[in-house]
Amino acid sequence: MRAQAEAIVTRVLALLFPPFAREARGGPEQVDDEARQLEDLLRVTLIPLVADSEPVVRAFLARLPDVHDMLVLDAKAITSGDPAAGSLEEVIAAYPGFLAMAVHRMAHELYRLEVPMFPRVLSEWSHRETGIDIHPGAQIGSGFAIDHGTGVVIGETSEIGDRVRIYQGVTLGALAVSKQLANRKRHPTIGNDVVIYANATILGGTTVIGDGSVIGGNVWLTSSVPPRSMVQFTSRVEKRGGDDGIEFHI
User: CA nearest 165: which of 112, 101, 105?
Assistant: First the structure.
């Protein structure tokens, strides 16, 4: 199943974005042939997992144009917010944040179609490749940008709005780990136009980050904040008498 996960990711990306194609395409006929090969691979993968795989295969393929459009918005958000990004093509071909979102948007479609196990296998393949761990159940809006990305964790019941940007080491997690909470919302809700800086940790199913807020680096947050909030550490520096050391109060 792991090998099939990589093969499906590769074929979907090749179908949606020319930089991932293995060779130059001769025309629409070759694209149609690639789509048929993807359809056959999906069918082989899903038959052992789903009682009636045909509707699932058709529904997944029908969603690919929308997945493509969402991913273009993700790539544009990464490009516009990263001074190091030379072009949209560079982001699509080389950025781990884009790859992680590409796989997540595929896995999320299969998760919504109630395919067991395989969406998680897809997400773990992406995790291994990028260092970014996004559960396939997480709901993520358009124009989502992951900058750098290493160490990012986004839990199953997270809900993320549009035009959100997060940096490396961010965790959207649960306050408690218990099987009794399996069917409850355990992870936070992030509004539109939010920025979350490196190594911030936001926990809890009732925690809501209001639209337009900025969460600073290394913040530990377990309660909601209203729209347009700025959450950050404030520090006071004191020089201790008779000692050259500096004491920080956070």
Answer: 101
Question: At 224, which CATH number?
Answer: 2.160.10.10
The answer for residues whose C-beta is within 8 angstroms of residue 107's C-beta and 6 or more apart is 119, 120, 122, 123, 126, 136
d(CA 69, CA 143): 10
Q: Residue 179's pLDDT is what?
A: 74
Contact 123, 111 (CB under 8 A): no
Pair (110, 165) in one structural domain: no
| Same domain, yes or no: 3 and 122 | yes
133, 154 in Cβ contact below 8 A?
A: yes
This prediction's pTM: 0.90
Is residue 196 within 8 A of residue 165, CB to CB? The reply is: yes
Distance CA 33, CA 132 (A): 32
Q: Do both 114 and 174 map to the same domain? A: no
CB atoms < 10 A from the CB of 58, how many? 12
Give the model confidence (pLDDT) of 120-139 as tens digits: 999 999 999 999 999 999 99
- The H-assigned helical ranges of the chain are 2-16, 28-46, 53-81, 88-94, 96-112, 118-130
76 and 191, same domain (yes or no)? no
